[in-house]
Amino acid sequence: MRQLNPTLWRTCRALTGRTRLGLLRQVLEQPGLNVSQLAERLKTGISDASQELRRLQSRGLLRRSCRGASVVYLPLPDPQVPSAAPLLKALQAAWNGTCGGYEEIALLAKGLACERRVSVVRALSQGPKIAAELSDLVRTGPDSLKKHLRILRETGWVVKAGKSFVLRPASHPVQTALLNLL
Q1: In CATH, what number is assigned to the domain containing residue 37?
Q2: Is the pTM of this model over 0.85?
């Protein structure tokens, strides 16, 4: 089994915030806006916008640039973060298509915003599993596994089929990208 890339689950955690998603969408749609302009568009404070943009930058999804006294963020993925380019492309596709809601993207991201849940989804990508198999594969106790499976079911990643848990087929560009990054 491949090693987990902790950047993926941390990136997913960053994508659970509505303000961060709103800022990211604005940067994707209109690159070159400064932090003040982005904050104004989202009706948030400049300090909050700046902090959220730095969080996205730390996940490799944006690049910071100075233009005179202004700071702008550009939708340029960090080549050292393997998940950044495919996620930016998937987010762009979602927002250009009919899957543009923040809530759906944040919900999908919440599903994989934990290293243990990434392990569960990775195990299920190999086929259906009963809880005991999953518990052994992801090295967690039954109570912890139950909690993670509940979250994965609520966020649209997993369904229960009889006694087995099954990975739900991807129906969203971000979900497809995330599965490909596992």
Answers
A1: 1.10.10.10
A2: yes
